[in-house]
Specification:
Number of helices: 0
Shape: globular
Number of strands: 11
Helix content: under 10%
Largest sheet: 7 strands, mixed
Distance between the termini: 40 Å
Radius of gyration: 13 Å
């Protein structure tokens, strides 16, 4: 079992930056891939970014590539999402997700992830 707690969301103007954090507990952190997803009002949850268990491989949605950076610190059991050049279209609830133990590949598909945080709201004003 894994517990995930996100933090760092908030209100920011277009062009600004935010850094989301996701603290994990429950099992060996470096043994599984982590991902960030988001869900805007009236829309389906979508992939944002993912990182392998070791942190040496990342994957991004085209809509955030070049603006967002995912990273992890396995000594702190934490994954981060640095979001720069934010746009109003980035407004959503952002969720942290973890794959099962031993699943270290940074997949893009929601169904690959077994554990989810409660989400943190990001609002970008125009």
């Amino acid at each position: 079992q894994v517990q995930l707690v996100e933090s760092g969301g908030g209100l920011v103007e277009a062009g600004g930056s935010l850094r989301l954090s996701c603290a994990a507990s429950g099992r060996t952190f470096g043994n599984y891939a982590m991902g960030w997803f988001r869900q805007a009002p009236g829309k389906e949850r979508e992939f944002v970014a993912a990182i392998s268990g070791s942190g040496d491989s990342t994957n991004y949605a085209d809509s955030v590539k070049g603006r967002f950076t995912i990273s992890r610190d396995n000594t702190k059991n934490t994954v981060y999402l640095q979001m720069n050049s934010l746009k109003p279209d980035d407004t959503a609830v952002y969720y942290c997700a973890a794959r099962s133990a031993g699943r270290t590949i940074a997949g893009r598909t929601i169904g690959l992830y077994d554990y989810w945080g409660q989400g943190t709201q990001v609002t970008v004003s125009s």
